[in-house]
Amino acid sequence: MSEFTEDQLQRYSRHIILPEVGGKGQKKLLTAKVFIIGAGGLGCPVGYYLAAAGIGTIAIIDNDEVELSNLQRQIAHSVKTLGKPKVESAKNTFESLNPDVNVIALKQRISKDNIMGLIKDYDIVIDGSDNFPTRYLVNDACVMAGKPLVSGAILRFEGQVTTIIPGEGHCYRCLFEEMPPAGLVPSCQEAGVLGVLPGVIGSLQATEVLKLILGKGDVLKNELLIYNALKTTFRKVKVPKNPDCPVCGKNPTITELLDYDAEYCTMQ
Amino acid sequence: MEEEIKPDRKINIKGLVCPYTFVKAKLAVEDMEVGEVLEILLDYEEASRSIPKSMEDHGQKVLKVEKINDTDWILVIRKEKE
Fold first, then answer.
1. Would you call A107 helix, strand, or coil by DSSP?
2. Residues A182-193: pLDDT tens digits?
């Protein structure tokens, strides 16, 4: 593999001098390809830190435009990008931070019809979506495709992170088998969220991604990490793989992607 | 009894300061095989102390630290582990 440029030596020096990273680890980061779902509260810090870390290719998918109400927490966007597609705004921000990174901006909705083709060429999927249909779609698709998935969620003052390694550990349906009924669960728009919370959770997701690429440390496999910002507590909950899980169990009943939105029509 | 060690590789990092002194030294060691010896020529005094310490922290063996004139040091490191 080609050597580092002088700029890269300076840019990544604090990585290279870590025994767990080194030049070899940094080269792994520079050739890695990750797929981020959502350019919102979670997708912004995840993509921002992964870009800073020198992840070679970052795809990011989101169908929305930047609104003023996003700027309380979605730190890749700005008043200059109001009204523009979030993925374009994020791409500009990430590539300004680090021109080594190739950001692929996908302004579209992820669906059961496009997800398998979209994630196919990527090493790791990161879920930063804000709704249950997408969360379950992404989980099921990653299990079926055998793609590692780093999943994050936030609401009010509480956030969760878990890392799904298909074939090795639990999946999202081992944890919560079915989507909660529509109407029972408030969306971010309805419930509010402390602006800094996605920064914490997104940074934890980015850390999981880097460890997966480097092959160092432990990830949240078979575990769910819960952060409470009001109490300043971190809690780890064991999530054993469910042998009867409908998607990753021994005899799965979900063997193809479902029409997740139909069950959840009240949420857009 | 001092045995003369023949380095397998030499780098000159004069003019560099921390952390680039260690970055260059570490990348050189990464490219070598276990058992091979690296000779480093440098003129940044702090690195004459910090590189040997960091190399030992990373599990490598420091064979020599020598001030060779008013400005320069020679360090000799043997790679002990990947």
1. coil
2. 776 666 566 799
Residue with tokens 């290279």: A16
- Rounded CA separation A240/A30 (Å): 33
Cα A91 to the chain's mean position, in Å?
16
State the Rg of chain B over Cα.
12
- pLDDT tens for chain B, residues 1 to 82: 456 789 999 999 999 998 999 999 999 999 999 999 999 999 999 999 999 999 999 999 999 999 999 999 999 999 999 8
Instruction: Give the helix/strand (H/E) hosting B40.
Output: strand B37-42
Q: Per the structure block, which two tokens stand in for A13?
A: 């020096």
A9 interaction partners in chain B (CB closer than 8 Å): 20, 23-24, 27
Residues facing A85 on adjacent strands:
A65
Number of domains forming the structure of chain A: 1
Assigned token pair, A53: 């870390």
Dihedral sign of CA atoms A45, A50, A51, A57 in order: negative
Give me B14's structure tokens.
């004069």
Q: pLDDT per residue over A143-181, tens digit each?
A: 999 999 999 999 999 999 999 999 999 999 998 988 887
pLDDT averaged over every residue in chain A: 94
Put simply, the chain B residues between 37 and 76 with a CB less than 8 A from any chain A CB are 54, 57-58
Residue A8 inside a domain? The answer is no
Which of B26, B56, B58 is the best mutation test for A, with the most CBs of A within 10 A? B26
The answer as to whether A156 is a domain residue is: yes
ipTM metric: 0.85
CA B36/CA B20 separation, integer angstroms: 22
Domains of chain B: 9-78 (3.30.110.40)
